[in-house]
């Protein structure tokens, strides 16, 4: 897969006057990451989801190219947003329907900048440098799509001031997005960096997050705090086989 080069001199994005509005969807906290239920308790899942969202939003607010962030929030979230004039909280209940793609299509209507980005909040390794890659693509006039590391799902979509693309998030969304965008005549450029591709969506992802895998990347501070607590709650030591086939163990 073609990757966009993201090596830009410091300050170049600001000199180019890049202005990007971001939509971050947060589904109902009690139902978030339910597929991790065999491995994490409800409290542990919720703690991880909040920690990752906190880190993603902190990274976005620190990103010079980001003009504003609309957080599209489902039910049951505690107050956790960082203090920032960039942030605007909107409830899913303010929109019609409850299907994700329909909510996103309504949510992007709140974004007014020339460049817009839909980004999910389960990306614990996300950095400003990763986001600069998106800005570079948008500056060049391209739409951008960020696959997960398996090139099956979609973690982010960036697009210009033309009509927003039709979203197709869900199982195997990458291929469905490619087909839909091709039909609409707006094929996006793929951007796959570690911070944009390594979402936490499966038990194996959590095991890799807990015990490091082969990556030298460091999660954000809120996620690291959750990890410190989580590691103390393990039943098995690192390196012992879990029943899911990976290295690690199940939580108490």
Question: Which features does this protein show?
Answer:
alpha/beta; globular; Spore Coat Polysaccharide Biosynthesis Protein SpsA, Chain A; 252 residues; disordered N terminus; 32% helix; 15% strand
Q: State the helix count.
A: 8
Task: Flag low-confidence runs.
Answer: 1-8, 235-252
Name the CATH homologous superfamily. Spore Coat Polysaccharide Biosynthesis Protein SpsA, Chain A
Secondary-structure content class = alpha/beta
What's the CATH topology label? Answer: Spore Coat Polysaccharide Biosynthesis Protein SpsA, Chain A
The CATH level-2 architecture is identified as Alpha-Beta Complex
CATH class designation: Alpha Beta
Question: What is the helix content?
Answer: 25-40%
Let me know the average pLDDT. 86
What is the rounded Rg? 18 Å
Terminal-residue CA separation: 40 Å
Number of domains: 1
With strands numbered from the N-terminus, the spatial order across the biggest sheet is: 3-2-1-4-6-5-7
Major pleated sheet: 7 strands, mixed
H and E string: HEHEEHEHEEHEHHH
Descriptive report:
- This protein is of the alpha/beta class.
- It has one domain (12-197): Spore Coat Polysaccharide Biosynthesis Protein SpsA, Chain A.
- Helix content is 32%, strand content 15%.
- It has helices at 12-15, 42-62, 100-107, 128-139, 173-184, 194-197, 203-211, 221-231, and strands at 20-26, 66-73, 87-91, 115-119, 144-147, 154-159, 189-190.
- It has a 7-stranded mixed β-sheet with strand order 3-2-1-4-6-5-7, with helices on both faces.
- Mean pLDDT is 86; it is low at 1-8 and 235-252.
Summarize the structure.
The chain has 252 residues and is an alpha/beta fold.
């Amino acid at each position: 897969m073609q990757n966009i080069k993201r090596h830009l001199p410091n300050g170049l994005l600001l000199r180019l006057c890049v202005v990007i509005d971001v939509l971050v969807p947060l589904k109902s906290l009690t139902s978030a990451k339910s597929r991790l239920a065999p491995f994490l308790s409800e409290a542990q899942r919720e703690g991880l989801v909040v920690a990752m969202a906190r880190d993603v939003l902190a990274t976005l607010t620190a990103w010079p190219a980001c003009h504003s962030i609309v957080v599209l929030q489902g039910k049951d979230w505690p107050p956790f947003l960082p203090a920032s004039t960039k942030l605007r909280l909107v409830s899913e209940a303010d929109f019609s329907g409850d299907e994700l793609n329909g909510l996103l299509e309504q949510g992007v209507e709140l974004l007014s900048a020339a460049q817009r980005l839909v980004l999910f909040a389960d990306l614990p390794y996300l950095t400003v440098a990763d986001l600069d890659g998106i800005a570079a693509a948008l500056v060049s006039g391209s739409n951008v799509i960020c696959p997960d590391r398996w090139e099956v799902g979609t973690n982010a979509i960036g697009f210009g001031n033309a009509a927003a693309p039709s979203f197709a998030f869900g199982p195997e969304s990458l291929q469905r997005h490619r087909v839909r965008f091709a039909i609409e005549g707006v094929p996006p450029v793929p951007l796959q960096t570690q911070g944009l591709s390594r979402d936490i969506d499966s038990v194996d992802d959590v095991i890799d997050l807990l015990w490091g895998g082969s990556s030298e990347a460091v999660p954000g501070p809120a996620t690291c705090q959750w990890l410190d607590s989580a590691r103390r709650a393990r039943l098995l030591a690192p390196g012992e086989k879990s029943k899911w086939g990976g290295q690690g163990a199940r939580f108490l």
